[in-house]
Hints:
heterodimer; A: MetI-like fold; 2 domains; 13 helices; B: mainly alpha; transmembrane (chain A)
Amino acid sequence: xxxxxxxxxxxxxxKVGVILGLVAGAMFAGFPILWxxxxxxKSNGEIFEFPPRLVTEDFSFGAYLSILTDPTKxxxxxxxxxxxxxxxxxxxxxxxMAAYAFSRFEFxxxxxxxxxxxxxxxxxxxxxxxPYFGLVVVLGLYNTYPGLILTYMVFTLPYAIIMMxxxxxxxxxxxxxxxxxDGAGSMTALWKVLVPIAxxxxxxxxxxxxxxxxxxxxxxxxxxxxxxxxxxxxGIQLLMGQHSYQWNEIMAMSxxxxxxxxxxxxxxxRYFMGGLASGSVKS
Amino acid sequence: xxxxxxxRTLRAPGRFSKARRGxxxxxxxxxxxxxxxxxMIVPIxxxxxxxxxxxxxxxxxxxxxxxxxxxxxxxDPVFHTAVINTVVFTVGSVAAHLVLGLAxxxxxxxxxxxxxxxxxxxxxxxxxxxxxxxVIAVLxxxxxxxxxxxxxxxxxxxxASGQVEWLSNPDLALGSVTFIxxxxxxxFFMISLLAGLQGIPHDLYEAATVDGANGIQKFFSVTxxxxxxxxxxxxxxxxxWTSQQFALIWMTTGGGPINVTEMLSTYTYKLAFSRYEFxxxxxxxxxxxxxxxxxxxxxxxxxxxxx
Lengths: 283, 307
């Protein structure tokens, strides 16, 4: 056998090996999600049918309908959207201002603030929870939107500032410097010049912020009490707490609760990969 | 983009470092400084204060007890169990995240397949990362239920038989929640390592080939040393975050059965919100904070060294 054909054969073997490995990995990663999707279209009696079937015989949107027509469950989604959108807008506003200062100015205390912002990301949520509970009750924010919105910003703000500063650093200073030289204030330079060209960066920071707020569980569990203030992750757990498990509804609710993040991911995949790779996002 | 450039990115580019001083930047920092003070510094001071007191939150006049709470928490056998479980869960998860993440990243980085095929697999591989802990918890409770599909598959392939109680058997529960966490968390490693692999200069491999290195030798003499800084960053971040995991445990086993999956986070939560022992919970929370801060110091120093 010549070296050429031997190399080709080795290459083919390696290719087959890699494909087999990739398919096995894809089953590990994808099968549970496929099962969630499949279960959401079953009737509840069919969930534990033996033998289990991936594709149901009587495919039904019933579980989705019963969630979307139940005002209590719809309210979970409304709450999640209100909180996540408010957190996103507030975080962006505060982070853009801070990032402008970090990117364009030198000032006393910058290094200390920098260290604090970086280390905030390592503080365990459970440590903050107990004083937050005390504070939120004292301030009358227990079981309210502002209580959740404010506390979520402790997770979203640090990395939003870090990512935003990084983005501003890539934009030429001459642009906003020129506006300032013409006598306009820093505010004009930031909001009228820098922000419009920073839209791609702002969008990716905004998506991460929304995701973190949408997925948050511990604070939502502890700082809200009544059903009308609960968010989607708590709503899913509440479905589990009922006497008879409606597994098809639980899975449908899980799918519906994941849709906003999945859509954002599919549309902005490049930003996700970049941000994940930079290690600045919580898993 | 390589792994976290946290420290570097907050500095303005060097040549402007003496550009401007004055009060102006403080106006832009003010909202951040206020929020960080209210959401971070005040609460941490409060929780440390609580940990030295008794009758906090539930009573208007707490009394100072100094280290009594620490003695009680550190002497509690359930706390010891929680420490051991947290270590097992965290080390098991992080090690598996690294191995799986690296294996998947290397397969996705292969030259043997087309771009499109790789993008397709990459999308599937990242999926578990897109679901929130609540969804992951209920999904695996369905999959791992005694009558569930996992038992069916294991039974029909002859690996295990019968209705295994993955989450309620004391011998299996810790392994099961660790497995779920492995499934949920490896994409975080995979993406960073994939970016790292794509950044390794090709001539390093060519030089190794010229030197007669085989695939395994190249892996240990080129790939691993080149990825080392990313791997260390990821390991530290994952250790910090996995040791703080709450939601997944809370919604799968709640720390049970009989404390076999009790973590420091669930232990602390129960002290506060099931037993209303806020002072003891604060003590436990401060201990958890100290653990995270030790890891954070290593992380920040590692980042500095990389800059």
